[in-house]
Amino acid sequence: MAKPLQINPLKLSQPMGALLAFLGIKNCMPLMHGAQGCASFSKVFFTRHFNDPISVQTTAVNDITAVVDGGDYSIGEAIKNITAKVTPDLVGLFTTGLTETKGDDIKGASLLLKEKQRIVYVHTPDFEGGLESGWQKSTTNIIDQLIVPQKEINSKKLLLLPNVNLTPIEVEKIKETIALFGLEVFALPDLSESLDGHLGEKQGALSSGGIEVSTIEALGDCGAVFTIGRSMESCGLKFLEKQPKAQHFHFDGISGLIDSDSFYGTLLKYTEMKTPPPSIVRWRKRLQDALLDTHFLIGSSTIIIADEGDKTYSITRAINEAGANVKYAILPTRNELGEKIGSEHTLIGDFEDVETHLEECEILISNFHGERIAHKHHKGIMLRGFPNFEAVGNTMKNDVLYEGSCYLLFELANLIRESREVH
Amino acid sequence: MVNRKLIKDLLDESACSHNKEKKSGCDKPKPGATNGGCAFEGSQISLFPYADAVHLVHAPATCQGASWETRATPTSYKGENNTPLGYCTDVTTNDVIFGGNKKLEESIEYIVAHKNPKAIFVYETCVTAMIGDDMDNICKRMQKKHNLPIVVVHAPGFVGSKNLGSRLGGEAVLEQLIGTREPESIHPYGINLIGEYNVTGDMWQYTPILEKIGIKVVSTLAGDGRIEDIQTAHRAKLNVIVCAKSLITLCRKMEEKYNIPHVSVSFYGKRDTTNAIMSIVNAFGDTALTKRAKKIIAEEEAKLDKALGPYRKFFDHKKAILNTGGNKSWSIASALQDIGIEVVATSIRKATLEDIEIAKEYVPILMKVPANEQAKLIDEHNVDILLAGGRSLYTAIKKKVAFVDVNQEKKVSYGAYGGLVNLAKDVANAVHNPVFKIVGTQAPWEDEGKEKINIINTNNSKYTLWYNDAYF
Predict the structure, then answer these.
(1) Which of helix, strand or coil describes residue A300?
(2) A158 phi and psi, to 5 degrees?
(3) How many CB atoms neighbour CB B450 within 10 A?
(4) What contacts A371, CB < 8 A, 6 or more positions away?
(5) Domain residues of chain B, as ranges?
(6) DSSP state of A319
(7) In this structure, which topology does domain A154-197+206-276 adopt according to CATH?
(8) What's residue B3's pLDDT?
């Protein structure tokens, strides 16, 4: 019999992914359509993860409105109360299990409020999908509902669609490296300017930064769209519906030498440049050296990784280049990449499954919840993914491209060495 | 099923002072202007500290996926500690369409087969309430089959606030656990601790003192609690409500049903801890017990004064402003005064009428809109320390005063006598830390005209004594 329940869930919900996506848009108020707890739990979760204030509001559906209201009342009230205090450029309206069970018409409600407030709506019940799909669905709907179609393309303008797992600093690094090729690049959503952990002037009620709504509307002339992570591939296709002349380049991952080569190879080809800027050449050489420096430790280690699909894929690709033996990859939800992840066993599971298989491995790569389990079984833990409640500095962890891969490999190798000495 | 009559009764609680005027504290949340947690979270807070029971949440991903292992409520239970674990039926589309009854039943069977809990709490949530799963029936059947208490908690998020959820959690315990077992012996000075969740081990700061006096903690709801104990709670002689007002209904009902009186106390600060112990002791009206209590309190206070000695000198003439909510508006103020800090003002935003009345006795200035008032007060009174939520950090940096985030998850206990030393240590560390001045310095490319901040006193001769744990 398959296990009927989750014990210590790895899975995070779709509305949480949606919330994060809307926080990557400047002056946005994410509005969760559900009971107040859905928003409150998610707010606390991300506040502790990012160590920064999180903007979100709730339609505060109660047991009466859950029965008699089709959504328009509580959404209308929420917009009225939000706009009484602040003036958001956008409200990101997304649903939860509760409001999808009652089947609210959020499109209709948004249309009724069109004059009052700019709204992007998206269906994200938490009884389907997970963090990655919530982020992806929101991005799809932002593209669909905001970008104005344009006739011509600007081949120097590039749209970057990062997956939810990329940290703010990773998004920034990707943007910077693309800019070195003489391109103007926009990330959607862009957490690198909102949840990167910066001290602002004051704490506002809306998202503190990110891509501007007017910038999103004008993205229709982008000549190229880059999607990073399998969860985001469909968003690239959605953009092509808006701009059929654009070229879509998809990358399942951009960590490690091979995948970074493919990323830069694509950029060279697209820009018709022969060689990349010198700093990139230098970082590639450093990564080659890092691979050799770390291969002895990493090559003798056994790893179990429990994280979102795209993150798991990307890390596994990178550490496998140094010979890691990834015995188990445990994912929260089904992912098309499942088969392609370079681990001996890949399964959909929870932390009870992690604990079951941990004994055969030396190092656990996972989030905060993995920490207690790893300590209990005297294993090394490398913290990656959501949530990261205790360790500070996670928004500046960089695992991508030549540079980030170096940091990733060194961190893992040092952990293996330390773990062998301690345990 | 959600019991609407019970919810109405809980909201109209006669023991709540605000119900004499209005029901603002328990009103329905306002769409687009709500920050608090839901009823499910409230029930989670009040019941999850039972570490010997499995807490099964019948819900889709968000409810438990985002909230497990977030509360620091330690336990001394020797078996598997279930408090930081997340059990969830993970309701999916299929269950929404065809019902989640089968999944719930199988989940309970799985837990019984693989774990060894003393009870199972099963939590109803919005989606499972909407799809109408027959949780009462399933749990009753499973309880009989496995001869194990299976308690259904009907506090789906949409019925109301965290506070209401805590009450509903208390009701579930009252209806389904309390009085279901007889103790081996009845202690003459047995008490129940109600609303004490042992956050960061707060409770352990004072329970050894109570025991030394001769008072026995029969059961708790629910800090470091055991199912077997709460089942015998009806044989205790006194209910002690600790800080939280939310479980007052439970205490009133226990008074009616089992004739157990209750007292309401706070264990924050020296004076309040002493008052708390004395009101518990006085409730028993036993002269020998009172005498013993006075002697032990005197010993503890002397020990504390000695431990606080070095800090007192340092805190002398230091002034603070406190901007926090609820009972913290006075309980932390009282604790700060006990370590020798002058509290200039405290916030009464979001405080109940009772809290405001008590706050008046402790602090001269009550701030109604602290965001607007505190900066001015810092200047006027030459304040050294701002204790507030993260939002006020900006004020502290602008005003170059030390900052202590009182709303952040605290890591050590500030409870009772021992906790005061921890509080003193944390505040002293904040006052010593140059960080609030340094992060506020102008960048080289910012306005030349603005005053440059001189960093004084960044030397490392930082009093080593702050790290001296001699008290423990």
Answers:
(1) coil
(2) -125, 135
(3) 8
(4) A381, A383, A390
(5) 4-15+22-176, 190-303, 304-467
(6) H
(7) Rossmann fold (3.40.50)
(8) 78
Question: Within 13 A of B219's CA, how many CA atoms are on the CB side?
Answer: 24
Question: Which of A323, A320, A328, A333 is CA-nearest to residue A304?
Answer: A328
Fold of B190-303: Rossmann fold (3.40.50)
Closest partner residue to A8 (CB to CB) among B35, B38, B85 is: B85
Q: For the domain bounded by A14-146, which CATH number is listed?
A: 3.40.50.1980
Does residue B40 belong to the interface with chain A, where contact is any CB pair within 8 Å? yes
Taking the domain B304-467, which CATH number applies? 3.40.50.12380
Sheet of A90-95, strands arranged across: A57-58, A28-33, A90-95, A119-122
Q: 3-state secondary structure string, A41-54?
A: HHHHHHHHHHCCCC
Identical topology for domains B190-303 and B304-467: yes
ipTM of this predicted structure: 0.94
H/E stretch holding B241 reads strand B238-242
Residue of B54, B26, B53, B31 whose CA lies nearest to B42 = B26
What tokens does B96 get?
């929404």
Chain B hits for A72, CB-CB cut-off 8 Å, are none
Class of the CATH-defined domain B4-15+22-176: alpha beta
CA atoms of B387 and B399, how far apart (whole Å): 13
Give the Cα separation of A375 and B128 in Å (integer). Answer: 35
Return the domain boundaries, chain A. Answer: 14-146, 154-197+206-276, 280-422
Whether the Cβ atoms of residue A226 and residue A202 lie closer than 8 Å to each other: no
CB-CB under 8 Å, B160 with A37 = no
Q: Give B26's pLDDT tier (boundaries 50, 70, 90).
A: low
Predicted confidence (pLDDT) per residue in B355-403, tens digit = 888 888 889 999 988 888 999 999 999 999 999 887 788 888 888 899 9
Is pLDDT at B63 greater than 50 in this prediction?
Answer: yes
CATH architecture of A280-422: 3-Layer(aba) Sandwich (3.40)
CA nearest B388: which of B407, B411, B368?
B407
Distance CA B15, CA B245 (A): 10
Q: Is A103 left (phi over 0), alpha (psi -120 to 50) or beta?
A: left
User: For residue B440, with 0-12 CB atoms within 10 Å meaning exposed, 13-18 middle and 19 or more buried, which class applies?
Assistant: middle
Model confidence over A282-318: pLDDT tens digits?
999 999 999 999 999 999 999 999 999 999 999 999 9
Packing angle between helix B248-258 and helix B162-176, nearest 10 degrees? Answer: 20
Three-class SS of residue A113? Answer: coil
| Chain B residues within an 8 Å CB radius of A58 | 29, 31-32, 34
Question: In chain B, what residues touch A8 (CB-CB under 8 Å)?
Answer: 68-69, 85-86
Note if the pTM is more than 0.90.
Answer: yes
